[in-house]
Write a structure and sequence with these properties.
By secondary structure, the protein is α+β, with helices and mostly antiparallel strands. Helices cover 49% and strands 15% of the residues. It has one domain (37-150): Serine Threonine Protein Phosphatase 5, Tetratricopeptide repeat (Alpha Horseshoe), CATH 1.25.40. It is built from 5 helices and 6 strands.
């Protein structure tokens, strides 16, 4: 059984082979999973996820692009590129203790028009697609509120 780190809190996820979505036992976040077909890919995802959680989005992007160079059908790698592009950091809400996205890099393009987002949806399982769409809506709402403040 592969061991992967939660992309929200960094806790260890126990996942079952073939699973595309799981819930972190530490932060309770329901999240999408990558296609893990080798120890090497697991290590790449862990490293990239660590870098993204540390807000080192450019280094994380390079690793996700490396993953996609080997497998162009990995929805999670495309989604992770989107998170890096928009500088998404998940922070704990003190009142609800849920992990909420914050956007550190505003983009002029809506997330819904982003080519990596479209590729993520194209290659996602039904369960993954639901989560990607929910998260994209939150990110889009944040972007819209940022643009309103800049006026």
């Amino acid at each position: 059984m592969p061991l992967l780190k939660c992309k929200m809190c960094g806790g260890s996820l126990n996942i079952i082979e073939g699973q595309t979505v799981c819930e972190c036992e530490y932060c309770g976040t329901k999240q999408t999973l990558p296609k893990l077909d080798s120890e090497r890919k697991l290590n790449l995802y862990d490293r990239a996820s660590f870098l993204r959680r540390s807000n080192d989005f450019d280094k994380a992007t390079a690793i996700y692009e490396q993953i996609l160079a080997e497998d162009k059908t990995d929805a999670e790698a495309y989604w992770s590129l989107v998170l890096c592009k928009y500088g998404v950091e998940y922070v704990e809400d003190p009142s609800s203790h849920k992990r909420l996205p914050t956007v550190n890099r505003t983009q002029l393009t809506s997330i819904f028009n982003d080519p990596d987002y479209k590729e993520a949806l194209n290659h996602a399982s039904v369960e993954q697609k639901i989560i990607y769409e929910e998260e994209a809506k939150k990110i889009d709402d944040i972007q819209k509120s940022i643009f309103k403040l800049k006026r």
